Amino acid sequence: MSLEQYKQAGQSHLFQFWEELSPESQKSFSAQLSQFSDPVTLVETVKDALKFSASTGLKKVEALPATSTFSTLDDKTDPQRVRKFQDQGLKLISEGKVGLILMAGGQGTRLGSSLPKGCYDIGLPSGNSLFQIQAERLLKITQLANSKFGTKAVVPWYIMTSAPTRASTEKFFKDHNYFGLSQENIVFFNQGTLPCFNETGEKILLESKSSICESPDGNGGLYKAIYDNNLLTDFNNRGIEHIHMYCVDNVMVKIVDPVFIGWSASNDYDIATKVVRKTNPEESVGLIALDSETKRPCVIEYSEISDELAQKRDEDGTLSLKAANIVNHYYKVATLAKEIPSWINSRKVLPFHIAKKKIACLDSNSGEIIKPQNPNGIKLEQFIFDVFPSIPLEKFGSLEVKRAQEFSPLKNAPGSKSDSPETARESYLKLSTKWIKENGASLESEDSLVEVSALTSYDGEGLDFVKGKVFKNGDVI
């Protein structure tokens, strides 16, 4: 790294304390700056992101055509067709052709925890963390597939962490003996980071006299992280042809969902996504839609559509734009191998977005740390769904699933009205209780809630043994 390059990019302020630093501090500072090989382009990227942000406005979109969608909510949906997709997915799992990517770079700060979010205990009777619930679901679905086809396949689990969460995540897995999974089939890798800038986007912020402020590059950084960590080669070496990707904070997520995988693969989709139905026009969710001009799939934020379109309903009374994005995707590996190099090098495909944040930083004048009360800087991030418009419509699919069975995110602090540990726990226990009642069990009291372990049942199957039994509140099966 040349200090001159940063000076040419207008970042001379970064080195105003250089002479005060020890040789070791100078070396570590140089190493940090060397991550970003072209400071001039980096600064230009911020300017472009600011322009892009200012240019976004109301967009013309419509619902995806019926040929690109499938719903498990529709009363007319043929159960045999769903079972067919499920069997196709289980077959692919049994053949070792499926891999799993977990995006787990976030910390549990909002939840009052200093650990990664995946370590969080939402208060289930079992005390299981999000990581443990998901690991056990992975064990169970793999067992179901292998049992059905008499195989011994595994599903490699690729876990994307961030610099602040990597060590503690790995330690958590090690301390819990990898939750019964084989260590060699769990691959940890880091998402990238980017410098933080001041409000105008002209200056990189200093974290200290010998370091700059950095932040993760957003969920869209997944593609670069896959490339930089040679995961495409690993997919190929392991014979993986299909990837299921999801976020750590959804307690209800169906790990390696065979229906989703079977449906996506049978339609030969390059990318597919799961959605839940939006029922309230005011709900603040991104929506899977069709760009009316390009006729390509896209995700549009609720703030980018007109009130009229947000309120518009179809003949059946449902919202016209109702496919709520839950960041749960299927990827064909051949598509990733072909497209990722071009995606990560094209700002048209993967633009940078700006987020105005309160960023603790060094005051260049006083040399003291500032902890601002209001947003004072810019973080750059990429969005994972920005690649959707690069996919032809016929190669993209959207699977609508039941919210009560598959989506209850953990985003807000305990006690919050929505997306909290309490709401996540309630969703999980209500579904478990529904399963045992459907299998002939009784409850000690009407309001009792029971936990069905992911090791016991993946999706309500295998619970015949509860028939005639009575369960009390807090029981774990």
Automatic annotation (TrEMBL):
Its EC number is 2.7.7.23. This is UDP-N-acetylglucosamine diphosphorylase. Keywords: Nucleotidyltransferase, Transferase. The keyword Amino-acid biosynthesis does not apply. GO terms for molecular function: UDP-N-acetylglucosamine diphosphorylase activity. One of its GO terms (biological process) is UDP-N-acetylglucosamine biosynthetic process. The keyword Nucleus does not apply. The lineage of its organism: Eukaryota, Fungi, Dikarya, Ascomycota, Saccharomycotina. It catalyses: N-acetyl-alpha-D-glucosamine 1-phosphate + UTP + H(+) = UDP-N-acetyl-alpha-D-glucosamine + diphosphate. Pathway: Nucleotide-sugar biosynthesis; UDP-N-acetyl-alpha-D-glucosamine biosynthesis; UDP-N-acetyl-alpha-D-glucosamine from N-acetyl-alpha-D-glucosamine 1-phosphate: step 1/1. Belongs to the UDPGP type 1 family.
